[in-house]
Design goal:
Shape: elongated
Largest sheet: 6 strands, mixed
Distance between the termini: 52 Å
Number of strands: 13
Structural class: alpha+beta
Helix content: 25-40%
Number of domains: 2
Strand content: 35-45%
CATH topology of the largest domain: Hsp33 domain
Number of helices: 8
CATH architecture of the largest domain: 3-Layer(bab) Sandwich
Order of helices and strands: EEHHEEEEEHEEHHHEEHHEE
Strand order of the largest sheet: 7-6-3-4-5-11
CATH superfamily of the largest domain: Hsp33 domain
Length: 245
């Protein structure tokens, strides 16, 4: 199966979104200094899920961020995906409240028209948090599955459309795809391809966003930065020289 692509299918009254990533995760891993295989696996899961959610965005500049937080591991992975296929990510330490062990999922939808909408759910693990988001926040009858194939991660999101009762049937019929990761398996199962879009590494940072970061720094700290401050984007590593007025 090709990577760096998101595909949409219809099966009866059921929508299927397939996302597959490898090179984007490699680029993110390089920028974020990821070397552990477990961290790379987590990144693939988060990125494939976020890409599937972003496939529903109606406008290219409307975007969303899915942030998973692991209290036990004391780390978080936030992936931002745009409607035009751009994706980037940031991995940071996370220091939870005492005794909190559930995986936390925060999904923030950004829109120039509607502003930001954030929802937070908990689960015992990544799959549990995703299931909670689907049922509690999206309020949809849907299933999600992620599959590893070497360094590639494929995510399959299957969702009932209004009035449909085909979810279980569709899920059973596309199971051969889970093993083969071959587009023909979906076609053989009766899926009609609606279209596809390429995914690519791309950040949403700008000089203006770097300026806002500088403005958020306390005046006492800004005074130590000199006349020009260097702001580094935590998502892509791009550096901005901003006048420290």
């Amino acid at each position: 199966m090709k990577s760096e692509i998101i595909q949409r299918y219809i099966h009866g009254d059921t929508l299927i979104i397939v996302s597959s990533l490898r090179e984007i995760c490699e680029e993110i891993a390089k920028n974020q200094g990821i070397t552990l295989n477990s961290d790379y696996m987590s990144l693939g899961l988060v990125a494939s899920f976020t890409a599937a959610l972003a496939a529903e965005q109606k406008e290219d500049e409307t975007y969303l961020t899915a942030c998973f937080k692991w209290p036990k591991a004391k780390k978080s992975i936030a992936v931002t995906a745009f409607g035009d296929g751009r994706m980037c990510a940031c991995i940071e330490p996370f220091f939870p409240d005492q005794g909190d062990e559930n995986t936390i999922l925060e999904v923030t939808r950004h829109s120039d028209v509607g502003g930001e909408y954030r929802s937070v759910v908990l689960g015992k693990n990544v799959q549990g948090a995703i299931n909670a988001y689907i049922t509690e926040s999206m309020q949809r009858n849907a299933k999600w599955k992620a599959i590893r194939d070497g360094r590639m991660t494929a995510g399959i999101f299957v969702q009932e459309l209004p009035g449909s009762t085909d979810l279980r049937k569709t899920w059973d019929e596309i199971k051969p795809f889970f093993k083969a990761l071959d587009e023909n398996e979906l076609i053989n199962a009766g899926c009609e391809k609606l279209g596809e879009r390429e995914l690519k590494f791309g950040c949403h940072c700008s000089k203006r966003s770097a300026q806002r970061v500088l403005e958020a720094i306390p005046p006492s700290e800004r005074a130590t930065l000199g006349e020009t401050a260097e702001i580094v984007c935590k998502f892509c590593g791009k550096k901005y020289e901003i006048e420290n007025e």
